[in-house]
Amino acid sequence: MSLTGDLFIASKRVQRDGAGFKAVAAATGAEIEPRFSVATVDDVATATAAAAAAFPIYAALPRERRAEFLEAIAEEIEALGDELVERAMVESGLPKARLTGERGRTAGQMRLFAKEIRLGEYLRARIDHAIPDRQPAPKPDLRLRMVPLGPVTVFGASNFPLAFSVAGGDTASALAAGCPVIVKGHSAHPGTAELVASAIVKAAERTGMPEGVFSLINGPGNSVGQALVTDPQIKAVGFTGSRGGGVALMKLAAARPVPIPVYAEMSSVNPVFLLPEALKARAEALGTAYVASVTMGAGQFCTNPGLVLAINGPDLERFLSAASAAMMGAPSQTMLTPGIHKAYESGVARLASASSITKLAEGLAPEGPTNGQGALFTMTGADFIADPGHAEEVFGATSLLVRCADLDELLKVVALLEGQLTATLHLDAGDHAVAQTLLPLLENLVGRILANGWPTGVEVTDAMVHGGPYPSTADGRSTSVGTLAIDRFLRPVSYQDLPEALLPAELRDGETIVPRRVDGKPTVA
Ligand SMILES: NC(=O)c1ccc[n+]([C@@H]2O[C@H](COP(=O)([O-])OP(=O)(O)OC[C@H]3O[C@@H](n4cnc5c(N)ncnc54)[C@H](O)[C@@H]3O)[C@@H](O)[C@H]2O)c1
Ligand SMILES: O=CCCC(=O)C(=O)O
Asked: Boundaries of each Aldehyde dehydrogenase domain copy (predicted)?
């Protein structure tokens, strides 16, 4: 399919005059064809009006129809073949194997949400029958289910051009919930976005969806995104990106005459704890595996282990030697955009220039103009406690190791950390007592606690939480990966004493089509 640079407004291709913008090859910074249209304010209004018109039709479709739509999206993405991966490679600089895997994850997410809709558990159907003769007052008949919020704006993320972009997890979960989606495409991969949008539109046509169910809006600056977030027809926002961008959108959404939720995934350094017995048993293996996780995807993962905490001693020295050796052999890697590369370099320079921080090791010299060179840094727990600002995320292949004098000092460091997506414990049986001290603190701090693994590589399953307290996300009560992500785009409605004929099928007596709780007892569909 040849790229045209079109926008997709209510499932229709639209070209706009004007300078537009071009994609940039991540490896060289050179512009690549074609020119992409920039949406006008009117385009935003047309897309949001079409989404609002589509909403009651789409939301009322039988769950099976929406499941078929999601499955058709997965098929159409796969049908794009090599072209999709090849374009994404040029635009993002990510390697073929990574993007092939990401395409599988993207299609898999769509299919997982199709299954979720069919299961119907997400409706949380509850029935409390009336007790007309209850004293001193009759009890009414109450029935509850979740309903979709309305049109959702999704901001495509730069670092996962497939799995967190046009047809990524936010889009899949919003469409599954019954919400039309307007994607604000990321200017780092507009060609990839156009290909995926064409697949969604084909799937929508094939399965008879209303036109306004999907739009893709482009605009390299902030104005298009701001217009979408402030548009009265938009009822929720999904975002993955910088803390500055996410917070700006949270403020815009909160200042609307009718505020809306923004589910922004922003910044996290994903602390890793090296507990003493685990260090004693396998310091060298841990050091090597740590660097593999730090440098994965040029470190451009929100799950990157950017902070390590451990207690000083000879085993920690063994870990540091192994990690330093691994980092010194780590090749530089192309970063996603020249801007992200520049931000990485200034983050590394900030760490390198801090008097309390020592550079432990750096990776091999950069081979290209936008290649990120890995780096490891260290500081003492006492210095960290004096200036915890050093835990700020540096997006790329770098990490800071905090050497604590003892467990008390380590706990003081933990108390200063901001909300995180993940925390990882490397532990053996002899570390369980320390782990038991840490676990309640970590439950308050993060969305996912791992043992003896690395946080990069998020599994897309029912039990996954990819979220966490602010500032890792805007709202720590939710996840953006896994089937629970659907909850972000739903709200509960209770029906009191409604005649049976007016009730949704899932709430009628005798129906067994979804799992539900009836008079306090769970029933299985
Ligand atoms: N933690 C993560 O997962 C993660 C992922 C990607 C980027 N980042 C961070 O973000 C930096 C920049 O990368 P990026 O371009 O992907 O993220 P970004 O936050 O700058 O942009 C993401 C999207 O949000 C839009 N946007 C940003 N600020 C906005 C505003 N004030 N108003 C309206 N729209 C706005 C952008 O146009 C883009 O579409 C990176 O250097 C890195 O530090 C973090
Ligand atoms: O960058 C954010 C998502 C990280 C992720 O999904 C992964 O580590 O697999």
From this structure: 23-458
Residues recognised as catalytic? 265, 302
Q: What is the pLDDT of residues 84-95, one digit of tens each?
A: 999 999 999 999
211 and 339 co-located in one domain:
no
Q: What ipTM was reported for this prediction?
A: 0.96
Q: Considering the domain boundaries, does residue 309 fall inside one?
A: yes
Closest ligand to Cα 163: 2
Report how far residue 398's alpha carbon sits from residue 291's, in angstroms, rounded to the nearest whole number: 9
Is ligand 2 within 6 A of the CB of residue 457?
yes
DSSP 131: B
**CA 186 to ligand 1 centroid distance, Å:** 9
Tell me 446's DSSP state: E
Q: 321 lies in a domain?
A: yes
Give the number of the ligand closest to the Cα of residue 106.
2
Helix, strand or coil for residue 361? strand
In a domain, 348, yes or no: yes
For 39, 219, 226, 481, the CA distances from 223, given in Å and listed in that order, are 10, 8, 5, 28
**237, 305: one domain:** no
State which ligand 1 atom lies nearest to the alpha carbon of 301. Answer: 3
From 92, 158, 192, mutation site for ligand 1 pocket: most ligand atoms within 8 A of C-beta: 158
Same domain, 91 and 58: yes
Of all protein residues, whose CA lies closest to atom 9 belonging to ligand 2? 457
Q: What tens digit of pLDDT does each residue of 162-215 get?
A: 999 999 999 999 999 999 999 999 999 999 999 999 999 999 999 999 999 999
Q: Are residues 198 and 82 in the same domain?
A: yes
Q: Whose CA is nearest to atom 5 of ligand 1?
A: 241
Q: Shortest CA distance to 210 belongs to which of 86, 357, 51, 93? A: 51
